Amino acid sequence: MKSISILGCGWLGTPLAEHLSSKGYLIKGSTTTPEKLDKLKNLGIQPYLIDRYKAEVKIGDLFDTDLIIINIPPRNTPDDPQFHHKMIQSIVSQIDFTKTKIIFISSTAVYPNLSGEVTESDASHNTTSRGGVALLEIEDLIANPATTILRFGGLYGPDRHPGRFLSSKTLGGKTNPINMIHLDDCIGVINSIMEQNIWGERFSVCSPSHPTKEQFYTKACQALGIPTPIFTDEETDYKLVNTDKLTNTIRYDFQH
Fold first, then answer.
1. Residue 53: is it exposed, middle or buried by C-beta count within 10 angstroms (0-12/13-18/19+)?
2. What is the pLDDT of residues 90-99, one digit of tens each?
3. pTM, whole model, 2 decimals?
4. Which residues, in sequence order, are bridge partners of residue 203?
């Protein structure tokens, strides 16, 4: 594997591109923001501009690569509720799966809140998250032996400090477990999947440690010196994302 295309160079995609470029890979990166093109180029990434208003994605040699990492959040339009589906279909139709692998970034939103543990087989089109339903539809569209799907939990890290998520808010479900993953571990897991050639799988990806909502967000706010959330005794639905499949398959030690 020599070249990698990253579709969606945002909060995760850009540092991922930097990391992989530092390891000697030729990196192509896409953005929908013209102002980011020079930034990507200065980071040693071949930049490509995708028109955010067109579902059909045809852009030079972006898909002529060994691996495509698709990191494009679901986005539909009032005029076209199938916009994102059509965009992914356009991308997939141009890929030669005998030569190119795919890592698709999904989310634990595909799991319903069962107030208990969930594993990969619990993903459901009946989840209360509309984004989760859309993601699961895309997963089913893109799944094949050359594709690995990573369902990330709540993302945090630089410029996304969890202390700012819920500061001063009044919340129930204080004993509910949280399912979070740090940017460093997102990059580490993706790198491990690549280097260990693990394809044709779907994985839940978050820290194997699940402190309670109260524990986690109280400490996060205290670390920033900002007001902590106010937790009530109200019970709310939750899920505890089991990551045994991932940790039993890849060789990787979570940093956070």
1. exposed
2. 999 999 999 9
3. 0.95
4. 150
